Amino acid sequence: MKGPKYPVSATNTSIDIIETLEEQGGLGITELSECQGIAKSTVHKHLSTLESRGYVVKKKKRYHLSYRFLEIGGNFRAQHGIYNAVKSEADKLVSNIGHTVGVGVEESGHRIIIYRSEGDGALNTQDPVGSRTLMHWTATGKVLLSGMNKFEQKEILNEHGTPRATNKTLVNIEEIMTHLKKIQNQGYAIEDEERKRGMRCIAVPVNDSDNNVVAAIGIAMPSKELDKWKAAKIIKLLNKYSNRISIRHEYHV
Questions:
Q1: Under-70 pLDDT residues of the chain
Q2: How far apart are CA 18 and CA 128, in angstroms?
Q3: Which label site among 43, 119, 139, 197 has the fewest CB atoms less than 10 Å from its CB?
C-alpha cells in the first residue's frame, strides 16, 4: 500500500508503539524507546495519551494493549455481515471433516483471515483471525485473486511482490496469472505446500448475488491426509457450505 503524501508523524509513532506492543507484549518506557529509536519523554507522552483513551494499560511499570482492541474487533465483525454468515457454516463443515477451516477476504492486496475453526485432526496453520498473508501463497488468496480482473491481479502482484515461501511457491507473475485463469475456470484452488511444507489446502469462492467473489473458504490438512480424503470429495463439501454462506449473507439469515 502506498504511503500518504503528507503523513502525520505523531500518528505514525502511536501506531508503531501499538504494533510493537502487539508483537512483543508488555514493555516498559525504556524498552519502547530503544525499539522505536525515540526519546523516552516522547514515548511517555504517547503512552499517556493511549492510556487515557483506554487503548493501553499499565501493569507494574510495563504497558500492555487493552481489551479495547477486542471490543473494536468484535464490533467490526458484527458490522460485516459476511462474518455472521460464515461462523455457523464453517463450524458445521469442521464437524464434518475434522480439519482446519479458514475463511478469508481481500483487503489492500492481502488475504485476511476473518474466521477460523479447528477440528480434532486440525493442523496448526499459524493463521489467527485477523492475520494477513500474501495472496499468491495460499489457496484462499488465489481464489480471491481469481475473482478479479487481470489489471487488478497484476497490480496486487506487482505492488506486494511474489516472494517465495517454499520451493513450491509460484513466483513468476505470468505463471501466476495463468494459474489464476485455471482456478477461475475450474472453480477451486489447491495450495500444495506453497506456503508451508507438509500442508495442503483446497479453497472455493463465496459469491454474492451478482456472482462477485466476496470471500474464500478453505480446508487445510497435512499433505498425506488430502490423498485419503480425495480432492473431489473436499471440493464438493466446500461448495455445499460456500453456497449456504452465500445465501445467509444475501438474506441475512
A1: 1-3, 121-126, 228, 252-253
A2: 18
A3: 197
C-alpha cell at position 62: 510495563
Residues 6+ apart with CB under 8 A from 85: 245, 246, 248, 249
CA distance 217 to 62: 40
The DSSP call for residue 7 is: -
CB 216 within 8 A of CB 183: no
> What is the residue type of 143?
V
Taking Cα atoms as reference points, which of 163, 141, 164, 167 lies closest to residue 153?
141
CB 191 within 8 A of CB 200: yes
Torsion of the alpha carbons at 11, 69, 215 and 139, rounded to the nearest 10:
90
Query: Alpha-carbon distance 152 to 92, whole Å?
Result: 33
Three-state SS at 224: helix
Question: Side chain identity at 149, as an amino acid letter?
Answer: N
Residue 1: predicted pLDDT: 56
Q: How many of the other CB atoms lie within 10 Å of CB of 216?
A: 29
CA distance linking residue 173 with residue 33, whole number of Å: 41
Q: Is 142 exposed, middle or buried (0-12, 13-18, 19+ CB in 10 A)?
A: buried
pLDDT at 122: 63
Local structure of 149: helix, strand or coil: coil
pTM confidence score:
0.83
Q: Domains (ranges, CATH) in the chain? A: 9-66 (1.10.10.10), 79-251 (3.30.450.40)
Cβ(200)–Cβ(193) under 8 Å?
Answer: yes
Report the C-alpha gap between 114 and 76 in whole angstroms.
11
Q: Whole-number mean pLDDT of the chain?
A: 90
The Cα 166–Cα 70 span in angstroms is: 33
Residue 196: name the closest of 142, 132, 127, 130 by CA. Answer: 127
